[in-house]
Design goal:
Elements (H helix, E strand, L loop, with lengths): L1 H25 L3 E6 L14 H8 L9 E6 L4 E5 L5 H11 L6 E6 L5 H4 L15 E5 L1 H9 L3 H6 L3 E5 L6 E3 L2 E7 L10 E6 L4 E5 L12 H6 L3 E5 L21 H7 L5 H4 L2 E4 L13 H8 L3 E2 L5 E3 L1
Parallel strand pairs: 3-4, 4-5, 5-6, 10-11, 11-12, 12-13
Antiparallel strand pairs: 1-2, 1-14, 2-3, 7-8, 8-9, 9-10
């Protein structure tokens, strides 16, 4: 009798595991792209050149600053990466995708203290949403910057946000998802700069919206891409000469053409993991019908657009 009961318990356990795995596979967490432009968005303030005018004249062509949603159906949680100047619209898009009636908004992850990546926090303040205890994950310098400088310190004082300290290569577990920040070289006037590795139960992603030239990073880009399923990486500028009158060698971003050259010899299956994101208003990749966009895609790479979903 004891052996029969033991056998029944084993069978029940197996069924439970199989059902749980099946359920998890049917409802994986996923990345939801909310914004793809460089910090100032598209079209950019005071830009009235031809490449910007289509955006001013047609609201449907406007693009928000780089931001990702992270949605976990099994955990009933949702998150954002970056709090951009387009935060109200991006939060609304996240709300449509994962309604607050079903999902708890459980945190914002920040990469660094440049305007397109954290200033949207202001919309959580008492003049706007009047939010309560929204977790904001930030590296130590980024945390101190928010704590000691107005108006951000008011968000902390009024408990609109609750700061959570991140550490280089130290993971944060969020139910089915693991988030790991890692330092990258960039202009660090007010804070350090990080990228994020996002691991789900089935797949993983890199998010590196800002970085200096790839040669300055201690990790080889080829190796980083091989280690994940998706790589959403800095594509601020397409090529040298994009900003007339500027010495672009002094601008700390890899050009898209440089990134493609670095990745030239990897298989097309590896190239297909790459999603170019964080595009300046001058970058022709913002126009999906441009010759440059067609060329990039012909080489096996992807160009991020709002609404893309990447299962984890």
């Amino acid at each position: 009798m004891k052996n029969i009961n033991k056998f029944i318990l084993i069978i029940i356990s197996i069924i439970s595991v199989v059902c749980h795995t099946s359920f998890a596979d049917e409802n994986p967490p996923y990345i939801y792209v909310l914004g793809v432009a460089q910090d100032a968005g598209y079209p950019q303030t005071a830009c009235y050149q031809e490449h910007c005018m289509s955006g001013w004249e047609n609201p449907l062509l406007r693009r928000g600053a780089v931001s990702l949603g992270l949605i976990s159906p099994n955990d009933k949680k949702k998150y954002m990466f970056e709090a951009t100047p387009n935060f109200p619209e991006q939060l609304y898009q996240l709300e449509k995708e994962a309604p607050s009636s079903q999902y708890t908004f459980d945190g914002i992850f920040l990469t660094h203290a440049h305007i397109g990546h954290y200033t949207g926090l202001m919309f959580l303040g008492h003049e706007s949403a009047g939010a309560s205890d929204i977790p904001v994950y930030a590296m130590p310098r980024m945390r101190r910057y928010l704590e000691k400088n107005g108006p951000w310190q008011q968000l902390v004082k009024y408990q609109n946000i609750v700061l959570k300290t991140l550490q280089h290569q130290s993971s944060v577990l969020l139910g089915q998802v693991k988030i790991t920040p890692f330092l990258v070289p960039h202009r660090d006037e007010y804070s350090e700069t990080v990228g994020f590795r996002i691991d789900g139960p089935n797949k993983s992603a890199l998010f590196i919206p800002d970085i200096n030239k790839w040669s300055q990073w201690e990790t080889k880009l080829v190796d980083a891409i091989k280690s994940v399923d998706y790589a959403l990486i800095d594509a601020a500028f397409y090529a040298d000469g994009e900003l007339p009158g500027r010495d672009m060698s002094k601008i700390p971003h890899p050009f898209v053409v440089e990134t493609m050259q670095v990745l030239n010899n990897i298989p097309k299956t590896e190239k297909n993991k790459v999603w170019f994101i964080h595009m300046n208003h001058t970058n022709p990749l913002l126009q999906l019908n441009s010759n440059e966009s067609k060329f990039v895609q012909s080489q096996g790479f992807n160009i991020a657009i709002e609404g893309i979903k990447l299962n984890l």
